[in-house]
Amino acid sequence: MLRVSLKGVWAHKVRLVLTALAIILGVGLISGVYVYTDTIGKAFDGIFADAYSGIDIAIGTESDFSFGEGTYLDEADFALIDEVEGVDEAFPVLQGMGVTVLDAEGEVLSSGPGPPTFVSSLSPAESDGVSGFTIAEGAFPVGSGQVALDRGIADLGGFGIGDRVTVVSDVVGRLDLTLAGIAVFGEDNSLGGTTWVFFDLPTAQSVLQRPGLLSGGAVQVTPGAQIEEVIAGIQAVLPDHATVVSGQDAAEAEAADIQSALSFFTIFLSVFGWVALFVGSFLIYNTFRIVVSQRTRELALLRALGAGTRQIRGIVLLEAVTIGFLGALLGVGFGIMIAFGLQLILPAAGIDIPTTTLSIKPRTVIVGLAAGTVITFVSALIPARRASKVSVMAALRDDAAGPARGGFLRRAMVGAVILVLGLAALFFGLFGDTGSGPSPVVYVGVGVGVIFLAVFVLSPLAAGPVTNLLGSILERLTGTSGRLARRNAMRSPRRTAATAAAVTISITLVALASTLTGSIRGTIDEVLADDVVADVIIRPDGQFGDPTAAFAPEIADRVVGSDLVANVTRIWVGWGIFTSETTTSETTTTETVTETLITGMEPNLADFLPPDAFQGTLDPGPGQVVMEASIAENGNLELGDSLVIEFEQAGELPFTLVGIAEGPAWAGIVGIPASDWISASGVDQHSQVYAKAVEGATADELKAAVEPLLADYPNVVVQTFDDLQSEAEAQLNGVLNFILALLALAVVIGMLGVTNTMALAVFERTREIGLLRAVGLDRRTTRRMVRAEASIVSVFGALMGIGLGIFFGWALIRALEDQGFTVFAIPWLPSSASVAGVLGSLLFWLFATGLLGILFAVYPAWRAARLKVIEAIAHL
């Protein structure tokens, strides 16, 4: 039977290639992601090992915040380390972010998207490489007028020792400095592609507005001292939030943090590989189902020669395992090529991510081989079972009839039950209270999967009427070929539906992404057009997705000085944690801890962001807070309630709820007075400034008047709200394009299923095509007939996918309504004339799928047209 299986695989090379290709593409993406992220992790392991190689003990801090900047130590506390027995020398360090380096023309110096710019203190005491950085040229920076840069950014800007360098701080504004030194990290120009700006410690504290504070430091112990004992002594003199670990442990912890961050990247990208394999499973199922039907006589002869049902089933499954294993093996190799290509492409695109020699772990190979082999095996189980049940006498008859039509009623009933169960799970996950049970994501995922199963079961019921309608339209355009294609598509609803299933899944995801993007775009447009009463906004340039990005207060002061400005409001944004209690029963109280954005606001904020309705006051005084209604509702808070907000620097502070606002403009806002925000965060920096023009002046005129005032601050941008809408659309289109690029793999696999099915259908209809040719059908019309049928099947799958995608998008938008997503939009037409705008259109994908069906049917159509008439008529 092994020989029979292998001969069966080899005898159908086209089927082998097309089926294996689906596995190769899916496994390739998964393996490529694993290899590339493992390689980055390996590179960072080496970087951190080098960074801490000269450090015996590392001092740092810990924080309860996931998104904050980190906590600090007092210099006075750090000085106590020198008194600990076994300490030879301690090196204080302050590090942070929030600066921008300008080039010689005064523009932001950047090679493209990549890691942020860091600020750090660097002193001659660290000249032995304690921090990992050493001065390769020049000297250490000393005083408020000197700076050092890492060699990477210095070379990019063409800076030499003694040159003037302009650095813009998010807190203290523009700084004109002298380049005292150029630093390197070991043998590298920088640390993992990041940008570093160095000052002496007092200057770094001034630039970051953290006087007397440190982020940590390094300790060298005296020869012969036990590091564990010295660590215990240091911990005893430092506050509780300080962390004291060995240099080796610190390197491992930093590497673990990178691995944790990479794990999200790995999971996100590999999901698209698993989606591609899921789509491929339908291709595999349909291929083996058709092949089993076509090989009925062959299988029956084997039964007649004594093969048992288990042997017949084994033949089919062994063929599946062989194809799956070969495809998975090639997929792993393809994934390694993808990872290698990314190492070459990303640096060329200006994305400088540290890499090293490719890291190919056993896990990558095992997961890749197992995924491809198991999915192929499982997909072939049902066809194999059907093959094993073939009756010898029934199979020897020239009878290819499918199941009796009576089965359609049973299919409708079963499909309806499955659909109801899927909808119940989906809506419970989106709107129900899961309590202490599984995450809502689990219910949503199960619901989506069950709904897909229901559509797969029910789709043959719709295949006949829908393909008849589509074929009728095509028949009017193409005549005979369209009429034949329509009848062929209608002939076997189950085959048509099974072929379209792979297309349906991929287009569902495309339609879901487009619908969500269109709805988010609609919500943003509605808020900016109707809910914000301002003419221009001043905000950090290129930081649309980071609400905490900030700039110096001097910028707002300049804006106020314009004659065309009637009024402004400043906004401060940072992270905070507030705890609320919800009573779920007479004896049970649930405590909810929420890390959320805290807005520092001026008394006139409501004039710029008018609510639809509000309770209390929207002008909080010291120790008071206002918030959007859904936040108060979720926290079980009412006017007059007391709550505690924890800030990363100031700790827990008490507040009283004095205002509750409703409306999209206030979505997500928890507002406190600006003075409280500045006091709690320790810095004064603005995230946004809204400005209104004087009467008679337009938004464009105000923008033109303000921009020259901020010309020496290229890190901020002045925008009208039309500008902001355009940028929001560009950002959303960028995200959508990225997702669609990843989903393109699933679309290609879905279309390969069409190719495979049409190739098998041509083989199955060889005699029929021969007879048509004999009565006058020419080769051109034959090719058109096959391509038209493929197009009908593809569009049928796309229609189901678009419908499902719109439904899932609607459900998600309704579930996110409390988060401010109030607009549900179906993007039938392009949002703009750009490529991104066209790709977001559902009608584009409907037509594109039809054209892809024609394209992917070129080979089967060519084969059909090349059949010799006499041989085709004689074919059995």
List keywords for this structure.
alpha+beta; 8-stranded mixed beta sheet; 28 helices; 876 residues
Description:
This protein has 876 residues and is α+β, with helices and mostly antiparallel strands. 55% of the residues lie in helices and 17% in strands. It is built from 28 helices and 24 strands. The strands form 4 sheets. Strands 4, 5, 6, 7, 8, 9, 10 and 11 form an 8-stranded mixed sheet that branches. It has a 6-stranded mixed β-barrel with strand order 16-17-22-19-21-20. Strand 9 and strand 10 (173-185) form a beta hairpin. Residues 399-406 have low confidence and may be disordered.
Low-confidence stretches: 399-406
The quaternary structure here is single chain
Briefly note the structural class of the backbone: alpha+beta
Largest sheet: 8 strands, mixed
The DSSP helix count reads 28
What is the C-alpha radius of gyration, as a whole number of Å? 33 Å
Query: How much helical structure, as a percent, in the residues?
Result: 40-55%
N-to-C CA distance = 24 Å
Shape: globular
Number of strands: 24
Average pLDDT taken over every residue = 84
What proportion strand? Answer: 15-25%
